[in-house]
């Protein structure tokens, strides 16, 4: 079940709403994901307030979606904690893969890149471009072909010249 859900996430793509807009990536098959993508941040926050199940996938997905929810609602202190947790949870998920699932390492790198990219957007929105650039650099190393990473790198570069916008998309 976990592998099927992970494969479904990898097939998703970020919404295309302009080359110079940041994108926050939410997992629509995780708690609050659909609400985040449709802009119902109150419903997303409520759904994410429940304790996650025991599944590592659920923990990582919920942490990521909580990061997105708190970032778009500009709850900076809580967003920083949530985004840091999303990165840690994604990294922990990768390290707990059994050896016979080593082939899944690349997929896990993509999940870590999502968490790093989201944290980068949070940093940018909280006026910390240096931390945003560092997270995007690491995300690009983990998942160099990811559209959401490239889009956020472009938005960060553009934001140094003009005001960029943030969109929420699904993964």
Index terms:
171 residues; mainly alpha; two-stranded parallel sheet; 63% helix; globular; disordered N terminus
What does this entry look like structurally?
There is one protein chain. The chain has 171 residues and is mainly alpha-helical. It contains 8 helices and 2 strands, in the order αβαααααααβ. It has helices at residues 2-10, 33-38, 41-48, 56-72, 76-95, 105-125, 129-142, 147-159; strands at residues 22-26, 166-170. Helix 5 runs antiparallel to helix 6 (105-125) and helix 6 runs antiparallel to helix 7 (129-142). The chain is globular, with a radius of gyration of 15 Å. Mean pLDDT is 78; it is low at 1-18.
Strand order of the largest sheet: 1-2
Taking pLDDT < 50 over at least 5 consecutive residues as the criterion, the unreliable ranges are: 1-18
Order of helices and strands: HEHHHHHHHE
Helix content, binned percent: 55-70%
Biggest sheet descriptor: 2 strands, parallel
Mean pLDDT: 78
Distance between the termini: 18 Å
Number of strands: 2
Give the DSSP E fraction (strand runs of 2 or more residues): 5-15%
Helices and strands in order, then pairings?
Layout: H1 2-10, E1 22-26, H2 33-38, H3 41-48, H4 56-72, H5 76-95, H6 105-125, H7 129-142, H8 147-159, E2 166-170
Parallel strand pairs: 1-2
Helix pairs in contact: 3-4, 4-5, 4-6, 5-6, 6-7, 6-8, 7-8
Describe the structure concisely.
The protein is mainly alpha-helical and 171 residues long. Strands 1-2 form a two-stranded parallel sheet. The chain starts with a helix and ends with a strand.
């Amino acid at each position: 079940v976990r592998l099927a859900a992970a494969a479904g996430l990898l097939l998703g793509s970020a919404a295309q709403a302009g080359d110079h807009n940041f994108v926050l990536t939410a997992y629509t098959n995780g708690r609050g994901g659909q609400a985040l993508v449709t802009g119902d941040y109150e419903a997303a926050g409520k759904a994410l307030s429940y304790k996650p199940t025991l599944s590592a996938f659920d923990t990582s997905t919920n942490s990521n979606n909580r990061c997105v929810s708190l970032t778009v609602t500009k709850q900076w202190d809580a967003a920083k904690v949530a985004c840091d947790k999303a990165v840690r949870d994604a990294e922990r998920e990768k390290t707990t893969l059994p050896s016979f699932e080593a082939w899944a390492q690349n997929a896990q790198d993509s999940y870590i890149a999502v968490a790093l990219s989201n944290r980068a957007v949070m940093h940018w929105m909280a006026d910390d471009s240096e931390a945003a650039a560092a997270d995007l650099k690491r995300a690009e190393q983990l998942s160099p072909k990811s559209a959401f990473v490239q889009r956020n790198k472009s938005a960060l570069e553009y934001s140094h010249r003009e005001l960029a916008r943030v969109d929420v998309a699904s993964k």
